[in-house]
Amino acid sequence: MSVAPHLHLPPTDRILSSRTGWTRAHWEATADRMLDALTPYATPGFAQYRLPGRNSWSGVVSDGLEGFARSFLLAAFRIAGAGGAVDPALIERYAAGVAAGTDQASGEAWPRLTDCSQQLVEAASVAIALHETRPWIWDRLDARVQERVADWFSGFVGGRTWDNNWRLFQVVSEQFLASVGAPYSKADIEGGLDRIEDWYVGDGWYTDGSGRNFDYYIGWAMHLYPLLWARIAGPDGDGGRAAVYRERLGRFLEEYPHFFGADGAPVHQGRSLCYRFASLAPVWMGAVADCTPLAPGLTRRLASGALRHFAERGVPDERGLLTLGWYDTFLPTTQPYSGPASPYWASKGFLGLLLPADHEVWTARELPLPVEESDTYTALPAPGWLLHGTRHDGIVRLVNHGSDHNPLPEAGDTDPDAGAGEDDPHYAKLAYSTATAPESAPHAFARNIDNHLALLAPDGTPSRRRRIHPVSCEDRVAASWSAARLPGDERAYRIGTTSVLHGPWEIRVHRVEAPEGAVVREGGHAVAHRTSPFATSGPGWALARTAEGLSSAVVGLYGWDGGPEDAEVARDVESNAYGPHSAVPYLRSAPHPGGQSVHVTLVVLSRDSVHPEALRSAVRVRVAGDAVTLGFLDGRTVEV
User: Fold this and answer.
1) Which stretches of the chain score pLDDT less than 50?
2) Of the candidates 434, 476, 484, the residue with the CA atom closest to the CA atom of residue 455
3) What secondary structure letter does DSSP report for 73?
4) Cα(521)–Cα(452) distance, integer angstroms
């Protein structure tokens, strides 16, 4: 693909950057285009940017502040990284915006900071940006403006935030108050930093708040803000915490490159995906905080690959704006709190501009990603994930046996779904990838076919996967169980699933409890494209393939005996972030006799040619009592 010409990028450099062709100049040009594109949407005093698109539930004024604050992050990294040598109008716009936003008489004043309000999120971005641009903006503000800014931030002091990554917004904002000699609460700062210790689960992983909340927030929030706080506090004011945060981030980054495909795409999983290349924030922070285990050339290759991936697919758009979606506008990837400027948290992905132009991450030659060198298998026991990448097609797949975005149940509650909310397509699926997205539009998720094993009620209603109970995760095997419920039946039926990785394949072994007459259904990955995918099926198998050759297939290896209509491909429109036409291959069983059954499925996602009929003989399955043995053509055997 070619990068959109409206970005006005410099020529590629295939000597320094043999993989992407991108250099620091490409990053600066992209940042400049994104910042310039915002100016038509500014209020007269530049305190708000009111962008086109669906408003959030917080209202137009809060959304306008969001436009200012999140783009101010991008401007700050651009200004500070250039030592102030940028277009003076950029500095003037944001200095003027700070003055007008804190002036109650300006007609565009920012909302006051109140408990658990959206303004708290945006205030943290303003605090970070003011700190990073201190010589060019804060130090040059009139003393009365500085007093107004401090007064606005004072809404944090003694205030309440949501008990998750929001605690860190209070931490960085009050540390900024401390740095400018304004009143603040040391207890607020230490309390927030102490609280995230309760969420650290080891191996570099946090959960975002109480529960199994694993997604990109771990990198762009839980790792990022503590080290941004440390930059404000300084080495004499961090109490030794920064060393701990650097060690944890370094550990996290050891496996993080395995989340990115050869085309630069990050795995499509979790909430707030409209932030897109904010997923690069921990990679850059590792270099900024001098704690990364990644070679400089790998850091830049990963970051430039991801930014270029989106640029090649129309991000930012022809107006220079980021839309509410993944590539194009697609609201099912957003949340009700997402407003038209929410995507500008993508500014975090430009953190690397803080590094000087002669830093080795900008001057070293690019190195390949792990998936470009070999097939990869990565077990992450903390979140309960397996990652597997295949070199020949560059796809990375995530197998999910641990992240469900639900709070923890109350102690002693024996209901397997106790405390769980509604399932979410970006957390509840068995698998995700760098080449696919879940069917997330409400009408499609109601059917809940892709990457899900369901019990079907007589009326076709599928059971959901709400709370995931991890069992194991090591090497190439992970297991979990969940409860399945059907309308009018109070019983929770247990479904245990073990995933075994082999090359581009995932073999799923399910032990299913079901009532008599229920039907078991399992779907593979949803593939999507601007044109309708090709679909075909046969006895015990189904396949969907896009015009670009991305194939998704499911092959029943054991327990799938539903007769002549036991395998099909479901089609949908406007239900997938990757394209308007989508298709999901799936299997159906015969009506269940009641009790327990075993089902074994081969799941394939590949850019190779896929021949499902041949794959039926690629894995030998032997079921004996509680054991299922898988035998592969290369002689490998796995007992589940």
Assistant:
1) none
2) 484
3) H
4) 8
- CA 515 – CA 506 distance, rounded (Å): 27
581-591 pLDDT, tens digit per residue, is: 999 999 999 99
The tokens of 179 are what?
Answer: 């740095």
Q: Which pLDDT score is estimated for 163?
A: 97
d(CA 35, CA 46): 12
What is the distance between the alpha carbons of residues 590 and 477, in angstroms, rounded to a whole number?
A: 28
Distance CA 391, CA 218 (A): 27
Q: In angstroms, rounded to a whole number, what is the distance separating the alpha carbons of residues 600 and 506?
A: 10
CA angle 511, 517, 519 (to 5 degrees): 55
**CA distance linking residue 273 with residue 70, whole number of Å:** 16
For residue 571, give the H/E element and its range: strand 567-576
* pLDDT for position 562: 63
Identify the CA nearest to 256 among candidates 93, 382, 347, 81: 382
Find where tokens 């550990």 sit.
251
The identity of residue 365, as a single letter, is: R
Secondary structure class of 564 (helix, strand, coil): coil
**Helix ranges restricted to H, 401-486:** 442-445
Nearest to 586 by CA among 598, 607, 572, 574: 572
Q: What is the C-alpha to C-alpha distance for residues 486 and 404, in angstroms, rounded to an integer?
A: 20
Residue at token pair 């957003």: 334
What's the whole-model pTM score? 0.97
What's the DSSP call for residue 49? B
Q: Which residues contact 597 (CB under 8 A, 6 or more apart)?
A: 511, 512, 514, 520, 559, 589
Cis upstream peptide for 458 (omega within 30°): no
- Rounded to whole angstroms, the Cα distance separating 182 from 382 reads 40
Reduced 3-state DSSP string for 540-576: CEEEEECCCCCEEEEEEEECCCCCCCCEEEEEEEEEE
For 572-602, the DSSP string reads EEEEETTEEEEEEEEEEPPPP-SEEEEEEEE
pLDDT of residue 413: 87
Identity of the residue numbered 19: R
CA distances from 294 to 285, 300, 388 (A): 12, 10, 19
Q: Are 337 and 60 in contact (CB under 8 A)?
A: no
Q: Count of residues for the chain?
A: 640
pLDDT tens per residue, range 305-338: 999 999 999 999 999 999 999 999 999 999 989 9
**How many secondary structure helices (H) and strands (E) does the chain include?**
16, 22
- Contact (Cβ atoms closer than 8 angstroms) between residue 632 and residue 502: yes
